[in-house]
Amino acid sequence: MLVTALLCIFVGLASSQTWTKNDCGQRPLVARSDDDKIVGGTASVRGDWPWSCSMRYPTSHICGGSLINSKWIATAAHCVTRNSLASSYKWHCGLHERNKHDEWTREYVSKQYIVHPQYSASTIVNDIALFRISDTDIDFDDYVLPICFPPKGYDYAGKTSIAGGWGTLSSGGSLATVHMEVAMPILTDARCISKHNGYTILTATQICAGDGGNKDTCQGDSGGPLVVQHPDGRWYLAGLTSWGIGCGGGGVYTRLSGFRDWVLGHVTSLPTGV
User: Fold this and answer.
1) 255: domain CATH number?
2) Of 17, 99, 122, 209, which alpha carbon lies 20 to 30 A from 157's?
């Protein structure tokens, strides 16, 4: 998974705040004044990043995903085996240790999945899929909360992003035992294209993060969140881990701002946080 990663300071125990289905992008276990301070390390704080979920097929971790509202998770299309039953996919949310649940961890059995109709397995464009995990709105708490969804056309170039998941710690290595995180710069479109010369890069729907330094996502992180904190203090889903050349030099992510209309066409509404 994340070849080098950075640990956020744990500030306190869970709050007693009541969350509504319009809340998003909050990290209740980290104080607002400290939630953008990266201080080194590898493992995430237990219970942090409450939108990050582990995709199980049928019982083993295969990919990551992000809770985007009270019924739906977004992940990568290449994580889905076509014609498989929705119920074959389970989601573990509020998870820290990959193979051990905390008292707040939840498991959801998928009700439905939708793969983008223009997804290409050869060029890995339109690499997005949606999973409905409940017929009714799930309840939120400090450990299970959705990420905010970015507005159309939002430019993240030059911003610091954080990717997370349970993927391998090196190319071909073993899956991480706990949720990991890594901070990486978002590249300009021009740098993204030049870095991946010879590969298809559609900048309207793809975004690049990481540029060397042995900081990256890796196998098993696919579909997981690439998030950026906006000026309003909330965290937004800038990308979904999609593909890269090896592990350690940065990768290509599905740009969520390029799919807002498509997502809304299926999930009906997205939380705004206000």
Assistant:
1) 2.40.10.10
2) 122
